[in-house]
Structures are given as C-alpha cells and as structure tokens.
Amino acid sequence: MKKVVSICLSLLLIFSMSLSVFASVPEADPYTLLYDYAWLIPDEAEAELRDKMRYMVETHDMDIAVVVTDDNAGLSSADYADDFYDFNGFGDDGLLMLINMEDREVWISTCGRGADYFTDFIIDEMTYELVDPLGEGDFVGAVQLFLYQVEEILQQPPEGQTSSTAPEPSPVRPTDQRPGQSSEYQERSIISLILPAALGSAVFGGIVVAIMAFLHNKLPNKSQTTFHYVSDGRVHLRVNRDIFLHSSVRKTAIPQNDGGSRSGGSSRGHSTMHRSSSGRSHGGGGRKF
Question: What dihedral angle (degrees, nearest 10) is formed by the CA atoms of 12, 18, 21, 22?
Fold first, then answer.
C-alpha cells in the first residue's frame, strides 16, 4: 500500500514539473510590446515608450519588444528572451530586449529579418552602450536609447545588401495578424502550448484512474470487515503577489552617431543562430551591467 502511495506522489510531482515548463515565462499580449514586471518604469513614461514602439513596428514591419523582469524563472537570459518571444505570439521577424534584474544582464534576442539586421557585432555595440544607463538605474533612458539604436540600424540595409537589393516591406495584412507572422505559425504556436499540456493531463488522469481501480479491488469491503475507512485530502492553493509602483523619471542624452565604433571596422558581420526550446531559430547576445 505504501509503495502505491509513493508511486502516486512521484507521478504527481513529475506531472507538476512538466506543467511548470510551460509557465516559465509570463503569458502576455503581443500587442503590448513593453512589459515591465519589475515595476521600474513609471506609467506615464511607459505609455510614451509603448506608443513609439507601436509606430516603429508598423513602420518597419517587424516586432520590437522590451521585457523588464526581476524573476528569470531559473532560465538564462537567452532562454528567457527566446521563450518569451516564441510563446507569446510574436511574428517571424523581430527582436526583443530583456533587462534581467535578477542577473543584472541585458540580452537582445533576434528572429528572422531581425537577425539579418542585428548581427552579433551590432548587438555587441548596442549592449555596450546600454550598460551605462542600466548600471545607473536609468531604465527609461535605457529603453529610449535601445529604440534609438533600433531605428538607426533599420534605416540601413542588412549586411550583404544594398538599398537596391533590400526586400520591400510586406503588403498590408489583416488587422488580427502580427507583423511578419503567418497564420500557420499562429496556429502552430497555440498548438505547441496546448497539446503537450492536454496530453500530459490525459496520461496522468489515466494513471490515477488505473491506480484507483487497483486499490478498490484490493481494499476490503463492508461485508468483509466491521470498519470502513475513507481518506479525504484537500489541497488549498493561495497566490500572493506584491506590487510596488515607482514614479521617478530620469533622462539620458542619446549619443549622436559620429561614425565611430567601439570595436572598429566597417563590416557588421553575421548572426550566430541557435534553436530555442520551441525549435525556432534565434540570434542574440548580451552583457552584464
């Protein structure tokens, strides 16, 4: 009997751990674009930054997102940034800047055309410039600088292309479709989230039913004994969340483009690509601040 109970508890633990994989990064609306889970950006500044980002998304036909968090869910900055982009319905082309306060690291994840524009060299230059405002706690200034950098890079053709060979912007899409996102990927993204959880629930439910049936056959009934034991256990879940609001705004001067470069050289290089947990191809890079 104790062995059966131990097996049940082990299966429950494994099932709970499998579900936690899908809850590693927060579920978010991809149209929000700016996600401040650490409450470091004042509401007024956040609204202005979000309006700027939406304008850039429409202008360049590319997703641009910023995430600020003080809880990386046990993931590296690269994995967190990639998973947040993949599992929240962003498009095939884009980039995401993660400000990871837990590890004090800034990371830029790229996808599709975003990786063509924002190569390893470019990301290294961008994050080098972002270290100063982030290290000083000027998060509004850091996001402003990031958007300025993105705008500057997107004004130029990707590495290996001239203005005459650069691809034309995509035609106008239906309003319910993200920039650069195909309906096929939207369906695939949803299925990739729902199907594993549904299958896991079905398998776990089947195991529990089988164990219950086994125990029912093994336990004595009322005709065989004077006593009838019934075990009733309950689990109470409670979620606590503390929200802290800040209302200080600092300004950082945006550096002018003087044609200089920290590393030197004129080539912007290429993007080193890797596969995320969803199987999607990403580029990216970052540094501590």
Answer: -90
- Where in the sequence is the domain holding 281, given as residue range(s)? 27-159+267-289
How many domains, in total, are found in the chain? 2
Handedness of CA 138, 140, 146, 149 (dihedral sign): negative
Q: Is residue 31 domain-shared with residue 120, that is, in the same domain?
A: yes
Integer angstrom CA distances of residue 155 from 150, 177, 205:
9, 24, 54
Q: For tokens 């360049």, name the residue.
A: 60
Is 231 within a domain? Answer: no
Q: What is the pLDDT of residues 159-180, one digit of tens each?
A: 665 444 444 444 333 334 444 4
**CATH at 45:** 3.10.310.50
pLDDT, tens only, 175-215 = 344 444 444 444 544 455 555 555 566 656 667 556 666 66
Q: How far apart are CA 111 and CA 117, in angstroms?
A: 10
CA pair distance 277, 125, nearest whole angstrom: 27
CA distance 267 to 160: 9
Cα distance between residue 266 and residue 244, in whole Å: 45
